[in-house]
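Q: Could you fold this chain for me?
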Amino acid sequence: MTSRAAARPRPRTKKRDPGWVPNQHGAWAMLVVPFLLGTYLRLRDGEPGWFLIPLFACWMLGYFAFNAASGWLKAPQKRKHQWVKPLAVYGATSVVSGLIALLLAGWPLLTWAPAFVPLLLPALWLAAQRNERATVGGGLTIAAASLMVPIARHPNALDALRPEAGPTWLLTLLVFAYFFGTVLYVKTNIRERGRPEWMVASVAYHGAWAILTVPLAFAGLAAWWWPLFFLLCTVRAWLIPGRHWSAKHIGFLEVGMSTLLLVCFAIWPGV
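A: Sure. Below is the predicted structure, expressed as C-alpha cells.
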C-alpha cells in the first residue's frame, strides 16, 4: 500500500497565468515613494486628501494593467490569451478607482491625463518591440512615476503651473534624478555587469548630480544634504558592482536608499 501510494504521480497544480504580479521588483519603490512624498506634502499643507486613497489604488492597479498590456504586446500570438484576464481585471479596477478619485477630488484631476500620453505610448511601443527594458523605457516609466509628486499635492494641473509650485517641481526633478540613476546602477550589477562603459555612465551620472546640487544648495533652492545624498549614491555606484551582490542584497540596499530619500524630503523645509 505504501509503495503504491508513493508511486502515484502527484496531481499537477494549475499554473497561474502571467501578468498578475509584475516581475520587476525594483519598481515597487519607484511606484510608492513619489506618491508618498506628494501625499505628505498635501497633508502638511492642510489640504483635504481623501481622494488620495482611491487615487493610489488607481495608480497601482494602473501600473499592473500597464505591465499586463506590455506582456500582451510582446507575447507570441498563441500565448496572448494568458495576459487578457489580468489586463481586463486590473484595467477595470483601475478605472473604477480613478472614477472614485474623480468624484472626491473633482474633474480638474483629469487635467493631468495629457501628461501621461507621451510617456506611456512610447513605453508600450518599446514593449511591443520586446525592448521594454531599454534605458529610455525605464526613463519614461520613472518620469510617469515622478509625476505622482505634483499630482498628489496639486490634483489640478493648473495649480501646479503657478510660480509658488516651483519647489514641488524641483522635488519631482530630484526624485526622477535618483530613480533614473537606479536604472543605470542596477544594469551595472546585473544585465550589463562587467561592461566598463556602463560603469562609467552610472558613476558619472550620479557624480554629476552630486555636483549640480551644490550650487542649488548655495542658492537656497535645495537643502545642504542633497549633495551629500547624491555623493553617497555615487559611492554606491562605484563600489557595489564589483562585489557581485545578489539581486536580493541589492534590493535591500535600495530599500535603505529609498528610505533615506524619504527622510531627506520629509525634513526639507523648502518644499
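A (continued): The mean pLDDT is 88.
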